[in-house]
Structure formats: structure tokens, C-alpha cells
Amino acid sequence: MWKERDCIEQSSTDIWLAVCAAVKSACSLASVAPEDVVGLGFAATCSLVAVDADGSPVSVSWSGDARRNIIVWMDHRAVDQADRINARNSPVLQYCGGGVSPEMQAPKLLWVKENLQESWSMVCRWMDLSDWLAYRATGDDTRSLCTTVCKWTYLGHAHMGQWKESDSRDMEACGWDEVFWEEIGLGELLEGNRAKIGRSVAFPGHPLGSGLTPAAAKELGLLPGTPVGTSLIDAHAGGVGVMESVPDAESTADLSDEEEICRRMVLVCGTSTCHMAVSKNKLFIPGVWGPFWSAMVPEYWLTEGGQSATGALLDYIVQNHVAAPLLANHAASQSVSIFELMNKLLFTMSQEQNMPFLSALSQDTHVLPDFHGNRSPVADPKSKGVICGLTLDTSEKQLALLYLATIQGIAYGTRHIVEHCNAHGHKIDTLLACGGLAKNSLYIQEHADIIGCPIILPRENESVLLGASILGAVAAKKFSGVRDAMKSLNAAGKALHPSSDPRVKKYHDAKYQIFRSLYEQQLSYRSTMAQALQ
């Protein structure tokens, strides 16, 4: 990964080689023969891949380095382009919370056209990374309803009433709003029946082409013709891998399956966090992406909230603290992670200071976690992070406190998203969590206490991989569809419940009000300084 200011780039060649190595290694470790692999699915970040007519990489970098042909999802080079696109108030924007984010593809495409003319003229296909991986494996460039609807302003509901998931075919891409692309200055992408951005789309899990091509099969160590399912974005694959992982004890007897799934939100917690909820009716929620038809669970509308930096923020907070090297050495000597060590340290501090509960340690420290902007629900990419309550203390204990306050700031952000969604028609009362941060017990318990909902952890924590494998299983006709596969392959692990101590609720309610005020104060300061510079 190459990082230079707001530009973050990767190499599709590098990623494909890593996929091949991983598949071979997984089959070897599991003693699985190629003929025993019934299907393959891809899930990847919603990064933008550029290739030419031969499928070779085209640079999207100021450097001109052809290896650097992916604009990574978190790249924020196109903030100005996003602002200009949003200023047009196109009707399609109501389906992404009222405006595109610089993390979506239209602003990035406009940036490349305006800044890298040579590359722009060379590109034959612009693809989401997961779609490109499926194309590289099969030679079929059919796009996923997940990627196109969530990141390209494609109107998936154009297929509503025409097709059901069970029809399992690639559909002519009739959901592009051509007026939108013309208005924003990218009308040339519509040429050749929209070949550069997608002529045909399919439900996730639809079998692509004739399965693995002989060349891709050889590279992966699998058999030619192995079915490959239409892809999902990684977070959405996490939703597919976890959304039915609810223990019977948490189910509500008087609700139908259809009603139950609509009361859940999945937190896919990694570098960033995605907040996924579905509904049978479309719900327009300002500042929250969607409603996206069939973008995750087929024939349901998806609402997608998000926080642009969560795991990345915790890493940043820890790695930039003077006590981090010492703490890392202590953790290594005990064969635990630095986060496990800080969790233990916080427990000890709570006892030593006779705190009524561990969360109260952070009473003087407040964090607004918008270090990479706010994706939801205020949708402000210019928002900045805030830490209130710093002192000259540089000890390991001070770092642990800052870590705790940052976890809480992230959890207050999720509470803000849940409350905002429920105020606009959702009825979310159960959270499911997966991804790297879901392995951190303190992180999950703080979220449960702050949001006031039970949080269910799936039996299979690598839920993104399970979601991807479901795509392969559906493509291989082992299940009738994605929802059927979810019900069979999702399984609950343990459930964490909010604290029953009313003092904990009172404490977090107070801190949440301070959290909300930090952004309002920032807006005021921003306005004051803008006026001062006029």
C-alpha cells in the first residue's frame, strides 16, 4: 500500500498473487483436494481498479507507476469532486444518504479524468476490487448489485419486480442514471453500452461465466470450471456471514423471520466499521448510505452506516503515544496483544482507584473519533478528531485511559448511528459484531453498555470469509439462494448484554451528550475561523 497525503493506492497484481498464495495455502493446511472445492466467492474492499483492454494495470497515481492501479476505499483525494457532485442535487443522491462520499467511485473517477488524462484515456474497465477479482478468475465482467448499487450510484431497484434472486442470471444494466453521469462530466463512461463501468449486473452468488478459466485455475491450484459467485464488498460479506447468527434465546417468538432480520444491525469492525441493517421497505435516512436494493440480502433494502476509522484510530492512538514501545515489550513478554494488556491494566486501575465500574476511569477524557472525517450520520468528511482532557502524563496508565476513552468515543458514534436510523423508520434492537475488533471483549462490552442493546458474536468470527464462501456455495447450487445459505451456515457464539447497573447507563448518557457537543463546538470553531480569514 502506498500512502501520500490523501492518496492511498494498491496493486491489483499484488492482490491477485496474494489471493493465489492464500487459496493454495488454505487447501494445503486443510488437506482439501482441488476436486473437493465446489465453489469460490470473492469479497474485497470497495477500492477502484483501473485496467486497459488487455486487462493490464493502468496507473491512478501521480507517480505514473503502473503497479499503482487501485485507488483504495479510504483514499480522500476526491473531496472537492464529491462536493461538486453533491451540489447538483441529482435525484440519485437520495439513495446514498443525500450525497456521495469521497470514498465512493464517481468522485474518484472525476478526479482521475481531471488530473491524469493519459491514464483516463487508457482505461478500458473501471471495476470495484471484488468484481475485478471475479473477472480475473472467470473472464466475465458482470458486476455485482452490491458493488454497483453501494458505490457507483447504480439504481438496483430498476430490476425490482422483473427479477428475483432465484432467476439467477446476469441482467442488462438498466439501473444507470445516464443524466447523472452526463451532468457530472463523465458522460463518456456511458459509451459502448456502458462497457467501462458495467454492461450487465447480477445478484451476489450468481455463477459467473463458465467458472474458473484454465489460466486462473492453474494459478489458484483449483480445477477449471469451478463455479465462481458474483461478489460482495467485504463488509457486506460480513453481513451475509453473520446476520442469521442469532441464538434461539434472543429470538422474539411473535415476530416472523422477515420482521426479525429487520431488527438487527451488523457491525463489521475492522480498520473502519460498517453498520449494516436491512428492511423490506425503503427508508431514506439523511447522512446514512442507502437505501440499496438487494445490495447485501437479496430483495431487502440495505441501510449502511459507517465510521471511517475505528481499528485504524485505535492503532493510531496507541502507536503515537510515548509509552507504546514499553507497553509493547511488556505485552510481548507475556505473549499477549498490547490491547489485551491494556484491558488488564484498566481492570487493575479500576480496582486500585475504587471506581464504581471500569468505564468511569475515563470521566475526564472525551474523544470525538472523526480523525478521518465522519461518514455517518453527519456525513462530514471535513470533520476532525478531538481529544479533550490531556495532561503532561506520559505513563502506560495514561495511554490505557486514552485507549478506553477512544473505544467509548467510537461506541458513542455507533449509538448516534443507531438512534438516527431508528428515528427514521428502523427498529434496531439487536447488534451482531464481527471482524478484528469483535475479538476485543472490552470493545464489545463498552458498545453494549453505551448503545443499550445485546451484542451477539458469531461462532465463526471470520464472518467476511464465511460470507464469501456462501457466494461460492450458492454459485455451485448447493443452496437455493443467499438467504437459504445464511440460515444454514450462520451460527451464534456468545451474547453480551448491557450492564444492569443504572449508574453505568447514567454515566454513558452524560458522556454521550458531551460527545455530541464536541462536533457542534467544532462547527462553531470552523465558522469562526472561516469568517476570520474572509
Question: What features would you describe in this structure?
Answer:
Helix 10 packs across helix 17 (463-475) and helix 13 packs across helix 14. This protein has helices at 12-29, 79-87, 105-115, 117-122, 129-138, 145-151, 178-183, 191-194, 214-220, 234-242, 257-261, 311-319, 324-333, 338-352, 396-423, 441-451, 463-475, 482-489, 502-532; strands spanning 2-4, 7-10, 40-44, 48-51, 70-71, 125-128, 143-144, 171-172, 200-202, 228-233, 264-269, 273-279, 289-293, 301-307, 366-368, 386-388, 430-434, 455-458, 492-496. The protein starts with a strand and ends with a helix. It is of the alpha+beta class and 534 residues long. It contains 19 helices and 19 strands. Pfam families: FGGY_C, FGGY_N. One of its GO terms (cellular component) is cytoplasm.
Topology summary:
Layout: E1 2-4, E2 7-10, H1 12-29, E3 40-44, E4 48-51, E5 70-71, H2 79-87, H3 105-115, H4 117-122, E6 125-128, H5 129-138, E7 143-144, H6 145-151, E8 171-172, H7 178-183, H8 191-194, E9 200-202, H9 214-220, E10 228-233, H10 234-242, H11 257-261, E11 264-269, E12 273-279, E13 289-293, E14 301-307, H12 311-319, H13 324-333, H14 338-352, E15 366-368, E16 386-388, H15 396-423, E17 430-434, H16 441-451, E18 455-458, H17 463-475, H18 482-489, E19 492-496, H19 502-532
Parallel strand pairs: 3-10, 7-9, 11-17, 17-18
Antiparallel strand pairs: 1-2, 2-5, 4-5, 4-6, 8-9, 11-12, 12-14, 13-14, 15-16, 18-19
Helix pairs in contact: 2-3, 10-17, 12-15, 13-14, 14-15, 15-16, 15-19, 17-18
Domain Carbohydrate kinase FGGY C-terminal: 266-476
Family: Belongs to the FGGY kinase family.
GO cellular component, one term: cytoplasm
